[in-house]
């Protein structure tokens, strides 16, 4: 463990783990797509359920990406009003936006949780290998739950220590 890793708190390590997980899902989706195309064009053979699994993993990747972007504030923003107001008002607007996003994300996570339960009850499965789809939905739901935690961490830091978000102290995982 490096001294930098020791100096980081549990929240920072959790944030790094979320980013690493999202990157891992991106690598898996890329590998499945590459191998599937390679096998199809060179050997006229495809991986069973490659399309279904890569589609489901892409959904998982998106939800885990939401978790990573929620903390960083790296999502698309329009700052026409924000850039014209004083720093205190900017901070208040940031907190309000975080709370509003958190509210929407909690509702979305709740609805995806219901989808997980219904998909499990209906025993939905992939076409070729008959893999249960609810497992993929559940992993996506965990990503949304992580997004809620990340957004909570962002909101708390905006209120308590906004300089930790603004100075770039939190570097992305490389």
Structural notes for this entry:
The chain is mainly α. It has six helices and no strands.
Helix count, DSSP H or I runs of 4 or more residues:
6
Amino-to-carboxy terminus distance: 15 Å
Helix content: over 70%
Average pLDDT taken over every residue: 86
List the domain count as a whole number.
1
Shape: elongated
The low-pLDDT segments are 1-6, 167-174
Q: Which sequence of SSEs, written as H and E, runs from N to C?
A: HHHHHH
Strand content: under 5%
Q: What would you report as the Rg, rounded to the nearest angstrom?
A: 19 Å
Keywords:
single chain; disordered N terminus; mainly alpha; disordered C terminus; 174 residues
Provide a concise account of the structure shown.
With 174 residues, the protein is mostly helical. The chain has six helices and no strands. The protein has helices spanning 3-7, 10-43, 50-72, 87-122, 134-160, 163-166.
Write the layout of secondary structure elements.
Layout: H1 3-7, H2 10-43, H3 50-72, H4 87-122, H5 134-160, H6 163-166
């Amino acid at each position: 463990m490096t001294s930098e890793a020791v100096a980081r708190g549990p929240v920072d390590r959790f944030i790094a783990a979320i980013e690493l997980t999202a990157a891992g899902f991106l690598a898996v989706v890329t590998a499945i797509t590459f191998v599937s195309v390679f096998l199809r064009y060179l050997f006229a053979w495809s991986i069973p359920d490659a399309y279904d699994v890569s589609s489901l993993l892409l959904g998982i990747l998106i939800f885990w990406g939401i978790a990573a972007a929620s903390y960083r504030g790296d999502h698309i923003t329009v700052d026409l009003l924000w850039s014209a107001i004083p720093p205190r008002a900017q901070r208040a607007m940031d907190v309000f936006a975080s709370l509003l996003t958190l509210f929407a994300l909690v509702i979305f996570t709740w609805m995806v949780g219901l989808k997980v339960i219904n998909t499990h009850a209906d025993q939905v499965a992939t076409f070729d290998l008959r893999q249960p789809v609810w497992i993929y939905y559940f992993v996506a739901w965990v990503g949304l739950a992580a997004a809620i935690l990340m957004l909570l961490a962002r909101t708390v830091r905006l209120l308590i220590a906004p300089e930790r978000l603004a100075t770039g102290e939190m570097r992305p995982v490389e």
